[in-house]
Automatic annotation (TrEMBL):
GO terms for molecular function: nucleic acid binding; RNA-DNA hybrid ribonuclease activity. This is Uncharacterized protein LOC111021711. SUPFAM superfamilies: DNA/RNA polymerases, Ribonuclease H-like. Signal peptide: none annotated. Residues 139-260 form the RNase H type-1 domain. It comes from the Eukaryota.
Length: 283
């Protein structure tokens, strides 16, 4: 009986001891939960890095923009200003928030992007010629109908064997100037090719002005085309890309696609199955 009472007393003492210890710990832990003096203003910026992958295999083109360290940001801005003074980059950061390289005559040597009138671009093509092995050729063309303010875009992508990989038509319920819509067609072709993870691309267009416009250095007073900047940025995502001017006779297939797009209700993309006339005429 005495032993049982001693056990009860011991358990009671242990319970009281634990309660005292927990109370003491709790008092020490939360006694300064709220600071007596709060600092004014926002805390200092820290070097936080973010990596956001909204799209599978998507690459964030400008990871430096996600760093907020003031000293590093100041150094980057100094370097950008230095490059601007030297004329190495274009001052068109309003849309992209980061500098875009100039597409001058030396840019294709640094980034494997070949511009028109360069040695590799060659002369105008008046017949269909397959691209180099492992390359794909994108042929784009447009059609406009002023009466109902509609514009059609046609895109055909073929491999080095002449086989169609993908084709697309897109209808726009708006009338663009020829130079604007021809440039937009090139951009649509690049976007479509980029979705297929193709990395060696040759872009053919019968619009000499559009090809020349893409190769010119940025000049706000002489380049009122909103899609040229997008083409420059999209071209960087390819390992090698070549822009070429072709004769009108080499764009009959894509021109028919563009004309079809004007009267078509939905936009269409063909990947495995193609219209019979398209397969025949593309040969």
């Amino acid at each position: 009986m005495d032993l049982l009472m001693d056990r009860f007393d011991l358990e009671e003492d242990l319970e009281n001891l634990m309660n005292d210890v927990n109370k003491e710990i709790a008092d020490k832990e939360f006694e300064k939960l709220f600071l007596e003096e709060m600092s004014r203003g926002l805390p200092e910026l820290r070097g936080i890095k973010h990596k956001i992958d909204f799209i599978l295999r998507a690459i964030i083109p400008n990871r430096l923009a996600y760093k907020t360290n003031p000293s590093k940001a100041e150094e980057i801005q100094r370097q950008v200003n230095d490059l601007l003074d030297k004329g190495a980059i274009n001052k068109i950061t309003i849309k992209y928030r980061h500098p875009i390289p100039k597409l001058d005559r030396n840019f294709h040597e640094r980034a494997d992007i070949h511009l028109p009138n360069s040695n590799k671009a060659g002369k105008d093509v008046n017949y269909w010629a397959p691209p180099s092995p492992d390359w794909v050729k994108i042929n784009v063309d447009t059609a406009c109908k002023l009466s109902n303010s509609r514009t059609g875009i046609g895109v055909v992508c073929q491999n080095d064997k002449g086989e169609i990989i993908v084709a697309m038509i897109r209808k726009l319920d708006v009338f663009y100037e020829p130079l604007q819509v021809e440039t937009l067609a090139i951009l649509e072709g690049l976007w479509l090719t980029q979705c297929l993870d193709l990395i060696f691309v040759q872009v053919d267009s019968d619009s000499q002005n559009s090809i020349n416009l893409i190769s010119q250095e940025y000049d706000p007073s002489h380049q009122p085309n909103v899609w040229v900047d997008d083409i420059h940025m999209c071209a960087i995502n390819f390992i090698d890309i070549l822009f070429m001017h072709i004769q009108r006779s080499s764009s009959n297939v894509t021109h028919r696609l563009a004309s079809t797009a004007i009267s078509s209700n939905p936009n269409k993309i063909w990947i495995s199955r193609f219209p019979n006339w398209l397969t025949v005429e593309a040969r």
